[in-house]
Amino acid sequence: MRRETCLPSCLSIRTVPSASAIPRQAWEELCPAGHPFLNADFLTIIEQHGAAAREWGWAARHLVASDESGSILGLLPLYVKTHSHGDFIYDWSWAAAYRQLGRQYYPKLMSCLPHTPVAGPRFLVAAGPQAASVRQALLDAARELLVGAGLSSWHVALPSEEDARMLQNAGLLISHDVQFHWLNTGGGDFGGYLASFSAAKRRKVRAERRRVQESGLAIETRHGDQIDPAEWPLLRALYADTFEKFNNHAVFSAACFADLATALGRRMVAFIARDGGLPVAVAICFRSDEALYGRYWGCSGNYHSLHFELCFYQGIAYCLQHGLARFEPGAGGEHKLSRGFTPTVVHSAHWIANPEMRALLARHLALQGQALADYSEQAAAHLPFRRDLQSSSAA
């Protein structure tokens, strides 16, 4: 479907059905440089391989803003979704409330990075005097699309702080969640990082790492361009088996991973455990120039502490070695606290079409926001760092 609307400011908005329909040059000019997810490659590949396509309940309706000469000034990735998997706004209870009141929640409209709980800009707009009007035009077009298609709601998952402020000022409701992020305070190497822990917590981490070292498994770090494409079926099987054990959707195929590895190169990072040369566990991550993002874990057996080693400790060591400022290992997980991951409040924004449901959800989100702020503060008290360092940091 292609839709075009002329605007008074000589901007036009059109809707395109795939990321590949947008010129690569526009992605490169409007996306943050070096970002592993906000780029033509990531979105195009996962759409083409079906991970964010109709067969999995995702229908792309990306918005493109152009000036009168045809130059693209802004993008807003959008999907019409028939479920709540892979968008990380945790709205299953909202859908249930709609059903109980005899209303239809799905399909809904989503601005998000599919299968990726990473905050960042969602309105991709060229800098300059027109930036504010381009953002507003994209926002208006999204709400217009929602009304025209008869959808229940539009959600913007994990926008940047700038986007969140704009969306809140435009009347969208704001929800809150807590993630756990590792922040690089300049510990030098992993030993230096552990020196910031209390003695008991330090002993626990060392014991976990020693268990892995004594297991006889070989641990290696590979970037996307260092992984043989023929190995992806084995690595993908680890991820798929683990996802299916927890009744999650393993939407990424081996071919999808292989194409992502080829396209992203060193922006993909895999920590692999091998037994006799064969992979038995993998943590597939991605990186920008500033951060490492943990995404997909898989394991074929029960290896003591291996999950902590591949999903947390290897990533921390990688960030220290490569000078990355933070490590975001994915959504949820209080067990990350004792490894030094700080509770961090993140936000999403929601436009609810029905006034009655909007008022109901507004009251719910007001209570949720205070509860999560309290939880984040309480959780931070359980970080493993020495009291003298926590006191000096607070001062």
UniProtKB/TrEMBL annotation:
InterPro entries linked: Acyl_CoA_acyltransferase, FemAB-like
UniProt-listed Pfam families: FemAB_like
PANTHER family in the cross-refs: ACYL-COA
Source organism of this protein record: Candidatus Accumulibacter appositus
Alphabetized SUPFAM superfamilies for the sequence: Acyl-CoA N-acyltransferases (Nat)
Protein's name in the database: GNAT family N-acetyltransferase
